[in-house]
Predict the 3D structure of the following.
Amino acid sequence: MALIPLVPAVTGVFALVRHPMTDPTRLYPTCLILPGAGSEEPVELSPSDAWQRLYGRYRDNALGRRIWQHAIRLAQQEISGATDPTGYPVSGWRLVLLSLAVPRLRSTVRRLGWEFGLARDELESAAVLGLLTQLPEVDPEQQGAEGLLIRSAVRHCWALVTPRRSERPVADISTVVDARQSCPDPAEELAWELSVTPPDRPDGLAATLYFTASRANVEGVRLGALAERLGLREVVHRARRPGPGPRVGKLALQPSQTQR
């Protein structure tokens, strides 16, 4: 008979970050002690209380800025190996800072996972790495310091997308493969013949012709031919952006092997 664990399993990087802040069996780090403004008394908040002031029903925007400032400073002290007034090493505050940032990163993880099929754990790990990478460079006194950390985390998530941008799901891959195999060699596709209107005179062409083309234009011709063979002509036609200007002549281009 299978045994049912008394404590539910925690899965996901973000869940593992948040779990110590909500698990009553775990000891919290020292509470955040925020200096009072003016004659106000200092505010003492546990990490869970700080989370509520940022996102919960007791949300306080004015207090939120001070929470971020203090949490960033303590996390930086932990990185540098600083000690508290009692002589003990400052510890646990990077985890607190990550737990406070998680709600602002979930939407990015969900979006990239859904659009590009990336694993949630992979995206969440990238977000954590991005935030911790930027942490030593941030000035806690700077306005919007937490935003710099969030943007760094988001950039690391998007970095995972770059290899996937050229990949697109296809319902029937065999059809696409067969269509591509039926295409001739690209070098043969660019073997064109030129018909000029009006025709040339016995002593040569009626005028000197100069042909110049950028690499982008040459590539566009080749891709256009491939799109025709793959049945994507209408899609390419709708996406094109013809340049402005009057019509100055007519050139008929056709593959050299085409019957006339």
In short: The first helix runs from residue 13 to 22. The CA atoms of residues 193 and 258 lie 10 Å apart.
